[in-house]
Write a structure and sequence with these properties.
Elements (H helix, E strand, L loop, with lengths): L8 H14 L5 H17 L5 H7 L6 H15 L4 H5 L2 E3 L2 E3 L13 H8 L6 E5 L5 H9 L4 E6 L2 H13 L5 E4 L10 E6 L14 H4 L15 H9 L4 E10 L5 H10 L2 E8 L5 E8 L1
Parallel strand pairs: 3-4, 3-6, 4-5, 6-7
Antiparallel strand pairs: 1-2, 7-9, 8-9
Helix pairs in contact: 1-2, 1-4, 2-4, 6-7
Length: about 290
């Protein structure tokens, strides 16, 4: 992108879109728009929308905005996820801050929240492997829980989750813990989106994932089941009578994780599919 040739807002956006397309960035037009919005926000302290764009498209662009957008586009063409550049993503209708310290929330995970929400009213909830806090905060905001606790092994991830709790005015207790190590209470509901990708599969993932998202949040060990086995081996010590658990799974892990639930003492074990028709959540009740 040659800044000396950029004179108007429309030209700036068109050039950004062209460069992203030339580098095979998916959804180049949408990416270019969000990067333009971020450039104006950071460089000019201005919030722009499509209405503003249509009435100001022929205006000259401030040099600092052009410089910011050039930097953003360069990062995006090298594979940096859009969400790590804009530091924002939406989940369950809420806005979440994200950066390299946490996994980017996926729409698939909303399936877990939607299933858990049906059972959370008036209940105590623990969200393990919380990452950005998207599950815990969504449940606290939307499900009328009695209380919500969120844990993670990563202090850096918890720092991001605390930002999101503050931004969403959400009352969450945070605990840094390697799985159950620092968890002392019992709960009515336990949710978890653990690392579940097989270690040898990680190098085959999209570069936006394998090169930028935290491996700690992806690596499920050789079988992809390491964290499920470790969590479920001790889960009964942290469950109240009649408690329920909701775990996200990979598309091919429904039967296997379902069996692990049964071995851990859960009944009414169910596998729920996501909108794409893939197995996404295993749930069960502990009597």
């Amino acid at each position: 992108m040659k800044l000396s040739e950029i004179t108007t807002v429309k030209q700036l956006l068109d050039d950004a879109c062209r460069e992203l397309k030339d580098n095979n960035v998916p959804e180049a037009e949408l990416n270019a728009w969000y990067l333009l919005v971020k450039a104006y926000e950071d460089a000019a302290d201005k919030d722009i929308d499509k209405a503003w764009f249509y009435t100001h498209s022929d205006e000259k662009v401030p040099e600092e905005v052009s410089a910011h957008l050039k930097s953003f586009v360069a990062h995006r063409t090298k594979g940096t996820p859009l969400e790590y550049i804009t530091h924002e993503t939406e989940f369950m209708g809420l806005s979440f801050y994200v950066d390299f310290r946490v996994l980017i929330p996926r729409q698939d995970t909303e399936c877990l929240v939607e299933e858990a929400m049906k059972q959370c009213k008036g209940k105590t909830v623990l969200d393990m492997c919380t990452g950005s806090g998207c599950i815990a905060i969504s449940l606290e905001k939307l499900a009328e829980c009695a209380s919500v606790t969120a844990s993670d092994i990563s202090s850096e991830a918890l720092a991001v989750a605390k930002i999101n709790a503050k931004n969403n005015n959400s009352n969450i207790e945070f605990i840094q813990s390697d799985l159950w190590k620092n968890i002392t209470k019992k709960y009515d509901i336990i949710t978890c989106n653990p690392p579940y990708i097989k270690r040898d599969v990680i190098p085959t993932l999209m570069r936006e994932v394998k090169d930028f998202e935290p491996v700690l949040a992806l690596d499920g060990g050789g079988s992809g089941l390491d964290k499920y086995e470790l969590i479920l081996s001790e889960i009964k010590e942290h469950l109240n009578a009649g408690a329920m658990a909701f775990f996200e799974i990979g598309y091919d892990q429904g039967a296997t994780v379902g069996d692990l639930f049964k071995k851990a003492g859960f009944t009414d074990v169910k596998v729920t599919k996501d909108l794409a028709g893939n197995d996404r959540v295993v749930s069960g009740t502990f009597l």
